[in-house]
Amino acid sequence: MNDKTGIPFQGHLVDEFNNGFVIYSKHSDNNTPVFGPDVDFTCLVASGLQYLKNKNLSVFIDTQELDMEVLSSIGFNFVSESEQADYIINKSRDAWVSFSPSGELFEPAPRGLQTNPTFMEEIQRAWENELRSVSQGAYVSREQYIRSLDQRINLMAQREDHATIWPMNFHYDQEQIIPLEPTGKIISWTKTTAAGSPSEFAFRSPILGGLTTALVEFEKGTIGTFLIVDDHQNPVSINDEVELVIRRIYAQDGWIRYGLKAIPLKG
Hints:
Elements lengths: L3 E6 L2 E6 L2 E5 L2 E3 L2 E2 L7 H12 L5 E4 L6 H6 L3 E2 L8 E5 L4 E5 L12 E2 L2 H15 L10 H12 L2 E5 L2 E3 L11 E3 L3 E9 L13 H4 L3 E6 L5 E5 L13 E12 L2 E10 L3
Parallel strand pairs: 4-10, 6-7, 6-8
Antiparallel strand pairs: 1-2, 2-3, 3-9, 4-5, 8-9, 11-12, 11-13, 14-15, 14-17, 15-16, 17-18
């Protein structure tokens, strides 16, 4: 039996066992984990891979319901046969994922924030509507998105003329690349009204009561713009410390764009 349960990690929870761990949503319905408003299996698996830390491991997973472009960008070696894997990843029917060398399926201990089922149903319908929508603003093609995915997910910055640049431009030497830590502090922020959000977020923003965007300063000097995770409803403040995690950003033309969002580390 495990003796470490409910460990907070990237906005989710982790229960550790002798032979692996289970990562699951902090939201629940009758003690069953359910996905938060901008989380799905891709987000949970991504966080589980980062919980492993050792990127030299080979992993096996059924790729259905997953964006493998996002997961492959994290740096692990995905293999096609479970016998070849150091870790086997098992998705459940609910919002939890098991990681184990043996492929053992773990279940999380009953806990979590009780959700409002009506709210979650509205959010799910909003995502479905987004998937059917077409761009009415600054369109980003799948090719453009994939081309910059690795540097955005991994916070790969460029050192040039005594300045740090993120996201990078596409003309750089490998010696110029420096990794940023996925933490920083808010130096400015704004919250859009439900009606004032960009068209990409028009279905979800009214349900969420608007969207909060923050300018985040990294320790190495550069600044990035990030949405606050959708399930953080408390006000943010200047100098709040944040952690950057993989979440759904928006959907369009039948597929979901993933990227980094900020989780305030207090409240």
